[in-house]
Write a structure and sequence with these properties.
This protein has about 190 residues and is of the alpha+beta class. The chain is built from 4 helices and 8 strands; from the N terminus they run αββαββββααββ. The protein has helices at about 10-30, 85-95, 150-155, 160-170, and strands at about 60-65, 70-75, 110-120, 125, 135-140, 145-150, 185, 190-194. A 4-stranded antiparallel sheet has the order 2-1-3-8, covered by helices on one side. Strand 1 and strand 2 form a beta hairpin. The longest helix is centred in the N-terminal third of the chain and has 20 residues, at about 10-30. The chain is globular. The relative contact order is 0.17.
């Protein structure tokens, strides 16, 4: 069995990542809106210290759930900045910028559960290479694209064709458009949950 992708290789590092995301959201909700949208940029601003692995450039998605229902999810597929800064930025964005949801309210914090997906490098792949539960996928065709994290198909109980059809619909394509002419970017993720 192949080893799972795990850039944060200890419980301590995983806990720091989750605490960083939560403190970023709490800071933004309590201070940010009162100070012209001030967003924290470093862990130090939040009273945390992030070890060396947080300086690696990695993509990350932050998913927010309130009472078990998705409340926001935003991320970077490509590594644009050090993980420390990516977690901070995407945690705040998931709480305030996901167009599908109203911004998170401070009154929801007690019911908030965070999930972080720390991504491997995106690489071109095929449907045959795609392993449900292991790979996330970026489907692209005709200038349209959509992404699912590795855990989505498992959570939904989908087969590979069902997941790819749902991904096509998410991208604005026909459900069977994945069968011909689509390109697939594959990645793995270390998923951390509170």
């Amino acid at each position: 069995m192949a080893q799972r992708y795990a850039p944060l290789h200890s419980k301590e590092l995983e806990d720091i990542a989750l605490e960083l995301a939560r403190k970023s959201i709490v800071h933004f909700l309590s201070i940010g809106r009162l100070s012209s949208g001030h967003r924290p940029h470093t862990a130090e601003e939040l009273g945390l210290r992030c070890p060396e692995p947080f300086q690696s450039r990695l993509g990350v998605f932050v998913s927010l759930y309130v009472n078990g229902v998705l409340r926001g999810c935003i991320g970077d597929l490509q590594a644009e900045r050090p993980l420390e800064r990516a977690i901070i930025a995407r945690a705040v964005d998931a709480a305030s910028e996901d167009w599908r949801f109203e911004p998170l309210r401070q009154t929801e914090l007690s019911a908030l559960r965070l999930e972080l997906s720390i991504l491997s490098v995106l690489h071109e792949g095929t449907v045959d290479e795609l392993e449900l539960g292991r790979h996330g996928v970026l489907l692209s065709k005709e200038g349209l694209a959509a992404v699912f994290l590795p855990q989505v198909a498992v959570e939904q109980g989908w087969s590979k064709p069902q997941m790819l059809s749902a991904l096509c619909r998410k991208a604005g394509l026909r459900a069977d458009d994945w069968r011909e002419g689509a390109s697939f970017g594959l990645f793995e993720a270390q998923v951390l949950s509170e």
